[in-house]
């Protein structure tokens, strides 16, 4: 389901309107914002995202098959601070135009469970975003209330775009009588709030932003698909089973009245008195006696626990923790407390208790910390051979995961897999995932300002990726795009760190290239860089060894070193002979 948002004049507020509608979408579909402005995207730069991850990367990944699945979409989504999942557009207009012209087909489950709110910029019939305006289920034309020329232009666009409606921005005022444009809602004009929303610095409850909620409800009502007719006990053989006046009536909910119902005071039920806890006296100390401690911390340390603290052990007994290691063979370890996570050898291995399908499900949830819907999980895990009852198969796999954790922890692990708002995810308070640390390190590297920060982020990325291929013991088609993404980001970190080290520490650069070969053992560029570095250090004997190592590894996949690599090795040996001849003279 597609909703297009476009402005009739520059600065009309199409981007802010699309973002606010997506943030306050009433559901039940998942709202995804798409930047399709032919002038280039701005949302990722405003909120600290990656402009290249989104529309461009998604169309490039789906370009080979032309098919988009739910798993492919999740790999390219980013999350705005307001909670909106969005597909960012590149800042270069030509890249946006190229991405919008690539044909992509989506599976039915993705279309049925998602609504895409596209920010199309300005209405232009010759732009690459014109097909979005034509084929959208609803086109929202954002117009300033004082711009009568734009309102009359919107009235003229009705013939070209029959599903176009107007959203007024500014002071609410009646539409002139000579303008017959259909208005679906009105938003207040607040430039500072709009800018803060793009940066993610304003709560959605602010009046100027919360005013978008009625507009989102109206838009959802307009695109609501008719409900398919199903069997009902009130009908039988095409005739009414009961008289018409006895058929139950469905009453609509008046959303405007919600929140104005006066609440009646409720008398609390009496509870038995809780005995006061015996609290040992806490030695007091002044802020000057505790170095580096402020008066606030001292006051907090002298506070007495409330009686309800005696009914829980969370302060004294840390919550159990689960460690999911995705790099290399899949490893899942349960430990009784967070403190035991730093002590190797303590804990129970859970992965040995799981069958193949349950392992795939656990890996899929670990790779998507934001969670996946039931349809997305079924479409990803059983895309080729869907069982007769896919929902039962999914619940069976989830039950086996919960049973494995219960057995490993003797029933103390609790709920590791959560289901919030129809999305299944791993509990972030109990589960630690190395791939999440990997993506956090990628974000730190993009936002790093100093060379020390960039180096630390690169070392963290490479250290995690060096453990091996993502879920190396699993064979699944949906894993391959994520593996390629992780391998590509790790090699980019290797290149960035090598530029920092090669000048002052070439031996550390050699060790770094050796680590990168473990990440991508068939990448000839790494071997060529290593041969050049060996020649620079005068280690010409290692050039032949490097070429022989590359030959053996490529033979495993039925390939041979390229002519460029062989010519480079020959040139480096020739330069070595010339250097010896010069020294002998």
Key structural traits:
585 residues, 22 helices, 13% strand
Compact summary:
The protein is 42% helix and 13% strand. The protein has 585 residues and is α/β, with parallel strands linked by helices.
SSE blueprint and pairings:
Elements: E1 2-7, H1 14-23, E2 30-35, H2 43-47, H3 55-61, E3 67-68, H4 70-76, E4 78-79, E5 85-87, H5 93-100, E6 105-106, H6 108-113, E7 114-122, H7 130-135, E8 138-144, H8 148-156, E9 164-169, E10 183-187, H9 191-199, H10 207-210, H11 212-223, E11 235-236, E12 239-240, H12 295-301, E13 321-325, E14 331-335, E15 348-349, H13 356-367, E16 372-373, H14 374-381, H15 390-408, E17 417-420, E18 423-426, E19 431-433, H16 434-446, H17 451-465, H18 479-501, H19 506-519, H20 524-536, H21 541-555, H22 563-584
Helix pairs in contact: 1-9, 1-11, 3-4, 3-5, 13-15, 16-17, 17-18, 18-19, 19-20, 20-21, 20-22
How many beta strands in the DSSP annotation? 19
Please work out how many helical segments DSSP would assign. 22
Low-confidence parts? 225-264, 277-318, 339-345
Q: Which structural class is indicated by helix and strand composition? A: alpha/beta
Q: Enumerate the strands of the largest sheet in spatial order, edge to edge or round the barrel.
A: 4-5-2-7-1-8-9-10
- End-to-end Cα distance: 78 Å
Overall 3D geometry?
globular
The major sheet is characterized as:
8 strands, mixed
- Into which percentage range does the β-strand content fall? 5-15%
Name the average pLDDT: 75
Helical content band: 40-55%
């Amino acid at each position: 389901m597609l909703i297009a948002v476009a402005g009739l004049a520059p600065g009309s507020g199409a981007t802010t309107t699309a973002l606010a509608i997506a943030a306050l979408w009433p559901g039940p579909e998942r709202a995804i914002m798409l930047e399709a402005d032919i002038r280039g995207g701005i949302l990722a730069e405003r909120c600290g995202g990656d402009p290249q991850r989104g529309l461009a990367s998604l169309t490039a990944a789906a370009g080979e098959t032309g098919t988009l699945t739910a798993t492919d979409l999740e790999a390219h989504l980013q999350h705005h601070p307001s909670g909106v999942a969005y597909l960012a557009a590149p800042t270069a207009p030509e890249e946006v135009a190229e991405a919008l012209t690539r044909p992509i087909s989506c599976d039915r489950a993705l279309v049925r469970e998602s609504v895409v709110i596209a920010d199309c910029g300005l209405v232009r019939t010759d732009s690459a975003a014109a097909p979005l305006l034509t084929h959208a289920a609803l086109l929202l034309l954002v117009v300033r209330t004082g711009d009568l020329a734009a309102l009359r232009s919107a009235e003229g666009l009705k013939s070209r775009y029959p599903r176009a409606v107007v959203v007024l921005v500014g002071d609410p005022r009646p539409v002139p009588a000579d303008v017959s444009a259909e208005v679906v809602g009105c938003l207040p004009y607040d430039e500072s709030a709009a800018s803060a929303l793009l940066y993610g610095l304003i709560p959605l409850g602010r009046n100027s932003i919360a005013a978008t909620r009625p507009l989102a409800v109206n838009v959802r009502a307009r695109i609501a698909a008719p409900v398919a007719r199903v069997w009902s006990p009130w009908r039988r053989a095409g005739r009414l089973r009961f008289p018409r006046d006895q058929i139950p009536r469905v009453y609509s909910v008046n959303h405007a009245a919600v929140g104005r119902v006066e609440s009646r005071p409720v008398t609390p039920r009496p509870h038995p008195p809780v005995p006061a806890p015996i609290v040992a006296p806490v030695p007091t100390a002044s802020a000057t006696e505790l170095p580096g401690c402020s008066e606030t911390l001292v006051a907090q340390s002298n506070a007495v626990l409330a009686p309800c603290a005696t009914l829980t052990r969370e302060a004294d007994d840390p919550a159990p923790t689960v460690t999911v290691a995705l790099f290399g063979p899949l490893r899942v370890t349960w430990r009784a407390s967070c403190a035991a996570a730093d002590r190797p050898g303590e804990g129970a291995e859970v992965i040995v208790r799981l069958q193949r399908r349950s392992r795939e499900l656990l890996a899929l949830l670990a790779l998507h910390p934001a969670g996946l819907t039931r349809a997305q999980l079924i479409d990803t895990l059983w895309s080729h051979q869907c069982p007769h009852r896919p929902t039962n198969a999914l619940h069976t796999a989830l039950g086996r995961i919960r049973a494995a954790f219960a057995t490993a922890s003797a029933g103390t692990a609790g709920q590791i897999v959560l289901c919030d708002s129809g999305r299944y995810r791993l509990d972030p308070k109990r589960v630690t995932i190395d791939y999440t640390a990997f993506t956090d390190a990628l974000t730190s590297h993009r936002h790093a300002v100093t060379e020390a920060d960039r180096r630390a982020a690169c070392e963290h990325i490479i250290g995690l990726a060096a453990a091996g291929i993502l879920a190396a013991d699993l064979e699944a088609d949906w894993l391959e795009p994520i593996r390629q993404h992780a391998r590509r980001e790790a090699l980019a970190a290797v290149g960035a760190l090598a530029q920092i080290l090669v000048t002052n520490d070439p031996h550390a650069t050699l060790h770094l290239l050796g680590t990168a070969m473990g990440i991508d053992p068939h990448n000839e560029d790494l071997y060529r860089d290593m041969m050049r570095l060996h020649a620079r250090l005068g280690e010409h004997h290692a050039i032949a060894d490097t070429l022989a190592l590359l030959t053996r590894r490529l033979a495993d996949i039925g390939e041979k070193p390229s002519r460029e690599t062989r010519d480079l090795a020959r040139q480096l040996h020739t330069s070595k002979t010339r250097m010896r001849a010069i020294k002998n003279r």
